[in-house]
Amino acid sequence: MRLTTKGRFAVTAMADLAMRSEKKPVTLSAISERQKISLSYLEQLFGKLRRSNIVESVRGPGGGYYLARPAEKITIADIIVAVDEPLDATKCGGKGNCHGEKNSCITHELWIGLNEKILEYLKAITLQNLVDNHNKSSSKVSITGLKKAT
User: Fold this and answer.
1) According to a count of CB atoms within 10 Å of the terminal CB, is the N or C end of the chain lower?
2) Which residues on neighbouring strands pair with residue 64, listed in sequence order?
3) Which CATH architecture has domain 5-145?
């Protein structure tokens, strides 16, 4: 199982937005430039994030995006699920039909358990946790050192 660029870029762009949106809406072109993510790709991701009520947009001059709710209320899982990122380590998509219509593979429950732990972990970390962690240590982010959501 791996997290694709869709999920990684969505989380990165949202962290960038969270760090800058308190003063005014942030343009996708600014995020694109700072994070080296294609503008057209960001437009696709932010369309999904907007439909999931994670971000809101303002049109016109001075427009852009801002968080739809406080960063401490947005989990990393919210972001990844919003952009349709599959978090599934199973071969069968969790259906249990790894070996035909009715038969699951010998490791099916192992991968289901891993899926649950990954989702649990991503639900426990908020966008604010990422921002706070980055502000404390601008050179290196320690995954194990992230504070979990309460």
Assistant:
1) C
2) 58
3) Orthogonal Bundle (1.10)
Token look-up 């003063």 returns 23
| Digitized pLDDT (tens) for each residue of the chain, 150 residues in all | 567 889 999 999 999 999 987 778 999 999 999 999 999 999 999 999 999 999 999 998 888 999 999 999 999 999 999 997 777 787 777 777 776 667 778 888 898 899 899 889 999 999 999 999 888 776 554 555 555 555
What's the token pair of residue 141?
Answer: 């982010």
**Beta-ladder partners of 58:** 64
Amino acid letter, 11: V
Domain boundary assignment for the chain: 5-145
